[in-house]
Amino acid sequence: MVTSPKTAIILGTGLGQLASEITESYEFPYSDIPNFPVSTVEGHAGKLIFGRLGGKDIMAMEGRFHYYEGYSMKEVTFPIRVMYELGIETLFVSNASGGMNPDFKIGDIMIITDHINNFPEHPLRGKNFPTGPRFPDMHEAYDKGLVSMADKIAAEKHIRVMHGVYMGVQGPTFETPSEYRMYHRMGADAVGMSTVPEVIVARHCGIKVFGVSVITDLGIENAAVEVSHEEVQQAANRAQPLMTAIMREMISRS
C-alpha cells in the first residue's frame, strides 16, 4: 500500500501508544533511513510509520531526537525537512512536560498556544534554507484554527483541556524549584526538552502546527516535588487515551 499523507504526527515521551491506532501501516526504522539520527531515549521506539488514522493518510514519528542527546539542531529538526519534501502540510506534535500553572493537575492535557525558546542554539542558525524567509514570522506558531477545533472536540467528548505557553529548554536535568519559578514568571505554563525546534522549522517550511503537552509532573511554586523519567512516562501513558481521542478526531476533520 502506498499513502500520500498531508498530515504528520510526532509522538513524544509515553505517547507512542498512539501508533497502535494507525491502520494499514508500514514502518521504517530510523536506522534504515539515510541521514536520520537514532533516538537514545527510553520510551522512544525510533521508527517512521505510514498508514491511516481518523480516515486520513498520515505519517508518524514514533520517537524523536533531542538536543541533550548530543545532536545538533539541524539533526534534531532534519525529520521536519523530510516531511516538507514529502508534502506534509500540517504537523501534530506532542510531548510530556512539567506544569507550572497552579491550575494544572498531573495528567492534564495542555493545548500549546505559544512557546518560549530557551535552547542555546537556534534551529535556523546558519545558511538559510529556501523553504522560508531568513527572518520567519512566529506570531502564530500554533495554528489558531486547529486550537479552536481541539477545544470544540474536547468539549464534545467532555475532556478537560487547558491552554498554555510551553517553555523549551535544553535538559536533560529536570528543573530546580528556582528554575520552575523563573520560567513561570517569564510567562510559561509548562516546560519540556523538545518541540520548540521542530515547530520553528515547521513554520519556516510553511507547515501548520498543532501542539499538545501532557502534564506529567508539577513544579508549582512552593510545591515542586522530586520526579523521575519513569514517573513521567507513567503519567503520560495514563493521559494517552484522551489525547488519542482528540487527535484522531482532529485529523478526521482536518
From TrEMBL:
GO MF terms held by the record: purine-nucleoside phosphorylase activity
Q: What class of enzyme is it?
A: transferase
Task: Write out the pathway annotation from the protein's UniProt entry.
Answer: Purine metabolism; purine nucleoside salvage
InterPro entries xrefs: Nucleoside_phosphorylase_d, Nucleoside_phosphorylase_sf, Pur_Nuc_Pase_Ino/Guo-sp, Purine_phosphorylase
Enzyme Commission number(s)? 2.4.2.1
Q: Name one GO cellular component term.
A: cytoplasm
Could you list this entry's UniProt keywords, alphabetically sorted. Glycosyltransferase, Phosphoprotein, Transferase
Membrane-spanning segments: none
Which Gene Ontology BP terms does the record give? Answer: nucleoside metabolic process
Q: Which domain of life is it from?
A: Bacteria
Q: Which residues form the Nucleoside phosphorylase domain?
A: 7-251
Family the entry assigns:
Belongs to the PNP/MTAP phosphorylase family.
What is the protein name given in its UniProt record?
A: Purine nucleoside phosphorylase 1
